[in-house]
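**Reference record**
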Amino acid sequence: MDINDLYEQNYVPYSKKASVAVVRSKNGKWFPGVRIENICYPLSISATQNALFYCLSEGHEPAELFTDEIHATMIPSWEKELGITSNPLEKDELHNITFDNPVLEADLNKIDKLKELLDMAVVGESDFPVSAIVETEQGYFTGVNIECTSWNMGLCAERVAIAKALTFSSKNLISLEIHTRKGEFSSPCGACRQVIKEHLPKKQIHLHHADDSESIHFSEDLLPHSFSSSSLSNR
């Protein structure tokens, strides 16, 4: 997959405007991100946030951002928050970048992996780590919650995992697993439920609780009467 391929991986059924960002980590690895829209527009994930949080969720420190969203109002905030430099995305200059596919194979022990991922969460604000694994036809994609000092800039584990899977061409998301180390009940927030409803309709959501119990729900049951509108185009 290269830069041009990433433009095909966008999920932009509402704006029809694709965006791409790539992040170079301090140890020289590259992480891509594409725009992931939601029918509830404010819940859309920008390509820049997607790429940055993919990098962070894999335990790497971002150093440099290349994005075609360079004039977005949040770019200075990302520079200040993460100590990165940002540059316009020039496809010709970055055409030879290679990206590691983060997909995990089907023989994965999901419970063990979910517990392992909790240590990867960036939770300096809440100290409440959450991990997520989304199953696709390719295999499994992981996510952890990433928090920022400006709370509205953070993203939950569920959305990090979903965005990562969609970036790597996994359009058919099969199921989602969520784990927390603390709390009485492991449950996605309302914003995540809206995103889950769009990308995993009628799919099973497995909630793994801090006491090692599990409950299984369908996405429609997690968010009854969710927002939808035939007035908005969708695939």
